[in-house]
Design a protein that fits this description.
It is a single chain. The protein has 296 residues and is α+β, with helices and mostly antiparallel strands. The protein is 28% helix and 44% strand. The chain is built from five helices and 15 strands. Strand 1 and strand 2 form a beta hairpin. It starts with a helix and ends with a strand.
């Protein structure tokens, strides 16, 4: 019934605009649809190559930059996750020797997946199905983990967006241990009103994060995560940029203060036939590292 009502509203933008998002029930229904769209985005993303440039910036106690390093990867979708092939370091192409090494590792990983025994293929399919199950469940948990408060409307990148605060739900308990992060966040999202897609996320850790009970690492509360998504080729919404600030301790002793930034680019479909070629880090498009037969 809800899907029928929503489909009617989406077909009538004036009625959608008239929905009172100050009403908790109406706002929660809207957020639930947005979460479902995010789930679909992540499923689509599992079938795309893309390029990721990640910068790691070490900060001093006053937040000033001390050291910066950069890595650029060609991210290859596989049934059991993704494979990151390093193609640039600190803005410079790899040496010929290292580039060949990275290429051979990527080709070997793809070859292993394509030449699995029937039993190995069955195990991989189960792993892939479990990955999709958890992805779907995560977005259901994300709706349960927060109270939502409508803040009004803005214009972002020339598009109308609804601004919604996410406040921790004190009674929320993660349905899977892998979803622990949802219990430690609060923040704000910007929702594209036309497509009902998240276009920007600004979150803060309101509880410390412990790795191995705090013995390996402890991330202090106050760390932040910012993500920007954009519509690509007028059809899909994928991440374009992120920034993560982290402050904490490693092995109970050494403190760290850093910022990580990332830029996603060159999204293209992983077709039924892919021939790996030496990557040209400066090129853009399917020729930049792969010959792709698109499924579209």
């Amino acid at each position: 019934m809800f899907k029928t009502v929503l489909a009617f509203l989406l077909a009538n933008p004036i009625l959608l605009a008239a929905v009172d998002l100050n009403q908790e029930a109406e706002l929660r229904r809207l957020v639930a649809q947005v979460a479902d769209n995010e789930r679909k985005n992540r499923f689509r993303e599992m079938g795309y190559f893309y390029r990721l440039q990640r910068d790691r910036i070490i900060l001093d106690r006053r937040g000033r930059e001390k050291k910066r390093s950069s890595s650029t990867y060609e991210v290859i979708p596989l049934d059991d996750g993704v494979y990151r092939k390093l193609i640039r370091r600190n803005g410079q192409p790899l040496s010929e020797k290292e580039a060949r090494k990275q290429q051979k590792k990527a080709e070997a990983r793809l070859r292993r997946q394509r030449t699995l025994s029937p039993a190995g293929r069955a195990r991989l399919e189960r792993k892939h199905a479990e990955r999709r199950r958890k992805e779907a469940l995560f977005w259901e948990d994300a709706v349960r983990a927060f109270h939502f408060r409508y803040r009004g409307e803005e214009v972002l990148n020339g598009r109308a967006v609804a601004v919604v605060d996410l406040l921790p739900h004190q009674e929320y308990r993660p349905s899977e241990k892998d979803f622990w992060i949802l219990d430690k966040l609060q923040g704000r999202i910007w929702i594209d009103r036309q497509d009902l897609q998240v276009t920007q996320v600004d979150m803060e850790f309101v509880k410390p994060v412990k790795v191995a009970g705090g013995l390996v690492a402890r991330l202090h509360k106050g760390s932040t995560l910012w993500v920007r998504q954009e519509k690509l080729r007028d059809e899909v919404w994928f991440p374009r940029r992120f920034e993560l600030t982290m402050n904490g301790r490693i092995f109970l002793l050494k403190g760290f203060n850093m910022r990580m930034t990332g830029k996603f680019s060159d999204y293209r479909r992983f077709g039924t036939s892919v021939r790996m070629l030496p990557a040209d880090p400066e090129a853009d498009g399917p020729a930049a590292g792969h010959s792709v037969e698109s499924e579209e």
